[in-house]
Amino acid sequence: MKQKEIQFDAAELKExxxxxxxxxxxxxxxKVRVSHVALPQPAVSITSGHVRKIRAKLNLSQAAFxxxxxxxxxxxxxxxxxxxxxxxxxxRLLQVAEQIPRALLSIGGKPHExxxxx
Length: 118
Prior knowledge:
53% of the residues lie in helices and 0% in strands. The protein has 7 helices and no strands. Helix 2 packs across helix 4 (73-81) and helix 3 (62-69) crosses helix 4 (73-81). The chain is elongated, with a radius of gyration of 23 Å. The N and C termini lie far apart (47 Å).
């Protein structure tokens, strides 16, 4: 993979540090943008039964659920049998699937193509 060369501009860095110092010292007119963002709590571990419950709520087969979450079918099966536990980003995706299912189902594909047969 080819690495991108980073351009270093000492004058720009010095100006940015000066603006930060002005802001820290309470000077009016400091050119600093401050954003406050409420961050969510870390996703908590869930049980295999909870994974099945989320999938059932979405009315999806294991294969369709795996596709929606962009994970392998074996992964979903492992979660649901308790052989493995979802972690990291997968936990957050499962949280989204449970709380805002439309967010995942609206990304690509048509919902009726993903529904369980029968």
